[in-house]
């Protein structure tokens, strides 16, 4: 009986090991098979975000929710309105601006890590044209209360915000998560990233800024998210830390 039980136990262990390998192989195959689809979904989402920031969306008047162009329409509209994609580096050899039609696939998170470890960070920038106006859209990334936050900010050549889209990985529903609601995002349109002296200062997301209707577009401030001080501070830091990296590029524009 003991020998029989031992044989059964051995069979169970062997079977379990085989199943682990089989399941692991199937999962690896599934992940590899889905990779093109995942990449395509990421590409479409980035295109939708970039278009949204420059005002190409399906927003309904009076609705607080942000509505993107459809995934079916996004590639065509992206090709229509985005005239140039560039990658900016500012390393030991100075400022470099290179055309790259795959710039939207650059992982901002990875680039921040590269810079943190002493490397040269790649900064993607998307140059769009709509209604005779030129938009410069930059992707930025930061830290909220619980997890990552990010945005696409459209600017003119003077670094005045023309539109923005914000989103998050896990901010508090009804509080910090409201960063992707239009009543918050729309406040950034028209805000200056420079002060009256022409120095870059970013935009402070602060509570009780004395301008609840956001009528003053030169105070470098927008009203904070209610009950979300840490998230609001994270947005302020994200804007300042990431958009200031584009200053050499905009200074170059001034001299052209």
UniProtKB/TrEMBL annotation:
It holds the Pfam family FMN_bind. Its EC number is 7.2.1.1. It is found in: Cell membrane. The chain crosses the membrane at residues 12-31. The modification FMN phosphoryl threonine is found at residue 229. Its cofactor is FMN. It is a single-pass membrane protein. Keywords: Cell inner membrane, Cell membrane, Flavoprotein, FMN, Ion transport, Membrane, NAD, Phosphoprotein, Sodium, Sodium transport, Translocase, Transmembrane, Transmembrane helix, Transport, Ubiquinone. It is an enzyme of class 7 (translocase). InterPro entries: FMN-bd, NqrC. Residues 144-246 form the FMN-binding domain. It catalyses: a ubiquinone + n Na(+)(in) + NADH + H(+) = a ubiquinol + n Na(+)(out) + NAD(+). Belongs to the NqrC family. NQR complex catalyzes the reduction of ubiquinone-1 to ubiquinol by two successive reactions, coupled with the transport of Na(+) ions from the cytoplasm to the periplasm. NqrA to NqrE are probably involved in the second step, the conversion of ubisemiquinone to ubiquinol. Composed of six subunits; NqrA, NqrB, NqrC, NqrD, NqrE and NqrF. This is Na(+)-translocating NADH-quinone reductase subunit C. It comes from Gaetbulibacter aestuarii.
